[in-house]
């Protein structure tokens, strides 16, 4: 029954003129991309999201036990100062970070995603492409050596950077399917220009870069695939925009100050993990679902884990519609209005986060519901488990408990408590990795 509804919605979505999509001309190529992307998104949706949340909690527990064991055996308490040797404190990081040969084995990262975006392997198996040129002057015929040239290549591609660089994108960077943008080993800063757009694509990893001061750009003709150039309308000024796309993993990104959102996932996007990011100085942080009419977002399943919501953030961490959002072991240093909000009956499972409320008495509440009466929102499932509440922070729960999920028979996972969130997020943001030594 669900399937019929979604198919019908897909047709609707595709015939709606694509102004919000930034598309000036919706040609046959884009129609085909949209159809394909929708099909993959439907296949990527999981009917038992609790299994995925439960599996992630198990992985957190296992990696934390390993950290505790190591620190016990060396008699260094975890509370002691970090001494500079590699310390991976969460299951995503422990998959790759402390290996000396990370630079010779970059594809290893493709095994490391967890949560709803766990199937993202990006450019695994493709050639390694090295960005040598930070310029971005030709939107239609990008120069070999530039980032824009890499992201529109045919087939899987693993994109790395030759040296530290600042890239000012003249227009949105339209990334095609099966790509990894891997900033490890260089200090890559995308700033003072357009942001990154993933539209009608599948399977992209973005890792280890910094993005700040992103602004709206006027649009025009932009290459968006090996054999296609799109006419784009003005871009919104999002740092990372995920549109009708699936199997996306955003990891270890430092984000601040964009004209619109830091990370948006809209228009029936799903199978997404946002992890290990460090977010600061921004108003509208993360938007999942753009409109109360977009019920294609019912398939949206997103994991937000091990992120540090740092200084100067105002609201939307995240703001959700329709889908299922797992907010696990994040460290919320501060918000000014609220932390987690939404409309249109999303399901939100908040586990093991540390919430530090601001001093303002009017903003102690973590949660914020809009466009619904209490009779209505009281049915939405917004549940908190093992969160830590500081300075009067208050999570207003609603709806029945979310089934804990049974990942392994008879094995109920308890989330790691919020007082461990700062340890789990300790290395958030882009890392400084040196070749030949653990990162
Ligand atoms: C580490 O030591 C603490 C306190 O001595 C103990 O409670 C804990 O079980 C130990 N953890 C492991 C994984 O050995
Ligand atoms: C840091 O601590 C680790 C684990 O206890 C130890 O193996 C390593 O030698 C220490 N490194 C430095 C630079 O002190
Ligand atoms: C991406 O990779 C998958 C798996 O190899 C393949 O089936 C798909 O066609 C690729 N997509 C594009 C657009 O190249
Ligand atoms: C998911 O959970 C259900 C019960 O909640 C269980 O029957 C099913 O086997 C699980 N699936 C997987 C893949 O673990
Ligand atoms: C998780 O970790 C703790 C110790 O750190 C342990 O006591 C517990 O049994 C583990 N497993 C589960 C399922 O909670």
UniProtKB/TrEMBL annotation:
Domain of life: Eukaryota
EC number assigned by the record: 4.2.2.2
Reaction equation(s) it catalyzes: Eliminative cleavage of (1->4)-alpha-D-galacturonan to give oligosaccharides with 4-deoxy-alpha-D-galact-4-enuronosyl groups at their non-reducing ends
Alphabetical list of InterPro entries matching this protein: AmbAllergen, Pec_lyase, Pec_lyase_N, Pectin_lyas_fold, Pectin_lyase_fold/virulence, PEL
Record-annotated Pectate lyase domain positions: 164-361
Pathway where it operates: Glycan metabolism; pectin degradation; 2-dehydro-3-deoxy-D-gluconate from pectin: step 2/5
Enzyme class, spelled out: lyase
Cofactor field: Ca(2+)
Cofactor binding mode and count: Binds 1 Ca(2+) ion. Required for its activity.
Keywords of this entry: Calcium, Cell wall, Glycoprotein, Lyase, Metal-binding, Secreted, Signal
Signal peptide: 1-21
Annotated localization: Secreted, Cell wall
Gene3D superfamilies reported in the protein's UniProt record: Single-stranded right-handed beta-helix, Pectin lyase-like
Gene Ontology MF term list: metal ion binding; pectate lyase activity
Family, per entry: Belongs to the polysaccharide lyase 1 family.
Protein name: Pectate lyase
Origin organism lineage: Eukaryota, Viridiplantae, Streptophyta, Embryophyta, Tracheophyta
């Amino acid at each position: 029954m669900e399937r019929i509804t979604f198919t019908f919605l897909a047709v609707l979505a595709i015939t709606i003129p694509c102004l919000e999509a930034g598309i000036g001309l919706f040609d046959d190529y884009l129609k085909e991309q949209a159809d394909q992307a929708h099909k993959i998104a439907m296949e990527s949706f999981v009917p038992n999201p609790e299994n995925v949340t439960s599996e992630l909690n198990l992985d957190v527990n296992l990696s934390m036990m390993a950290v505790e064991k190591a620190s016990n055996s060396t008699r260094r308490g975890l509370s002691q100062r970090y001494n500079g040797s590699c310390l991976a404190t969460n299951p995503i990081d422990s998959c790759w970070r402390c290996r000396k040969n990370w630079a010779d084995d970059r594809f290893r990262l493709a095994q490391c995603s967890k949560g709803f975006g766990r199937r993202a392997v990006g450019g695994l198996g493709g050639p390694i492409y090295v960005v040598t040129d930070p310029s971005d002057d030709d939107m239609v015929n990008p120069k070999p050596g530039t980032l824009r040239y890499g992201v529109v290549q045919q087939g899987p591609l693993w994109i790395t950077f030759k040296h530290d660089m600042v890239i000012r994108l003249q227009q949105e960077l339209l990334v095609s399917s099966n790509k990894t943008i891997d900033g490890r080993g260089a200090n890559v800063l995308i700033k003072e220009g357009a942001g990154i757009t993933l539209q009608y694509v599948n399977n992209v990893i973005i890792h280890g870069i910094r993005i700040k001061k992103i602004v709206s750009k006027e649009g025009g003709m932009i290459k968006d695939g090996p054999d296609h150039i799109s006419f784009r309308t003005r871009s919104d000024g999002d740092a990372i925009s995920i549109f009708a796309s699936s199997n996306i993993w955003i990891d270890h990104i430092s984000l601040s100050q964009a004209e619109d959102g830091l990370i948006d996932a809209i228009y029936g996007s799903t199978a997404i993990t946002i992890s290990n990011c460090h977010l600061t100085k921004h108003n509208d942080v993360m938007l999942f679902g753009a409109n109360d009419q977009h019920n294609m977002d019912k398939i949206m399943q997103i994991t937000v884990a091990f992120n540090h919501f740092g200084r100067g953030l105002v609201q939307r961490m995240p703001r959700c519609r329709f889908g299922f959002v797992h907010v696990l072991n994040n460290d919320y240093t501060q918000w000014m209005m609220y932390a987690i909000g939404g409309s249109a009956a999303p399901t939100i499972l908040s586990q093991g986060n540390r919430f530090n409320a601001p001093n303002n008495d009017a903003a102690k509440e973590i949660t914020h519901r809009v466009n619904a009466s209490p009779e209505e929102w009281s049915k939405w499932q917004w549940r908190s488990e093992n969160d830590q509440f500081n300075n009067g922070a208050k999570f207003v729960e609603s709806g029945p408990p979310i089934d804990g999920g049974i990942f392994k028979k008879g094995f109920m996972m308890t989330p790691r408590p919020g007082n461990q969130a700062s340890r789990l997020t300790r290395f958030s943001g882009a890392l400084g990795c040196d070749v030949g030594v653990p990162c």
